[in-house]
Amino acid sequence: MRLHDMNWQAVDEYLQHDDRIVIPVGSTEQHGFLSLGTDAILAERVAVEAAEPLGIPVLPVLPFGVTPYLAAFPGSITLRLRTFLSAVEDILDCLEGQGFRRFAIVNGHGGNTAAADLCKEWTAKTRPHRVQAQFLSWYNAPRTWAVAEKYESDPGHGSWFENFPWTRIPGVEMPGGRKPALDRRKIAQFSPADVREQSGDGNFGGSYELGDDAMNEIWETGVNEVRDMLTDGWAF
Known about the structure:
Layout: H1 8-14, E1 20-25, H2 38-51, H3 81-98, E2 102-107, H4 114-123, E3 132-137, H5 142-151, E4 178-179, H6 184-187, H7 192-199, E5 206-207, H8 212-232
Parallel strand pairs: 1-2, 2-3
Antiparallel strand pairs: 4-5
Helix pairs in contact: 2-8, 3-4, 5-8
């Protein structure tokens, strides 16, 4: 359930019988012909659908992440790494102070993965009670990634792999065919201007879209994989 669909009394009552909470994190950045909010939309939606049957609250997504390499595309917004990590840590600290003890961060953006190490550091702090923090990038979790690669190997940023009905812009028509992939080894050395020049429309390589049957299979696998983390992923 979405935290925004609860009042504080409902959260207080929830904490009487459960201490889990889900924190989706994403990004606002270009995704070719798809929504600038793609990573945020997907992280929040997969978290909500996974948590709903379990009755676990899901925070509104943190919509900004670490994406300096896309800064030359209008509408793309990046946080400094220390700003992003500080925001995540502040959220964890605040929720811990209210009684939450098990935290699941569901990530939708590759630039945010440093939060996985933050979870380890944060959990290791000396405190009078046990806390647990998990981090999962839903899109490349093992089962979800395996299903995606069944359709097309090594999907690129802004390509078919992020092209769901809920990330499309009404009235925007996708190009046909498959775009040659950018060399991942070189992308890491590009300036933002280089990324824009070399990628052109923002797709880093691969088909622009697949059929909805394929996307639904990937999505259902992702939801189930996140749900498994929320049920069986805790150490205690």
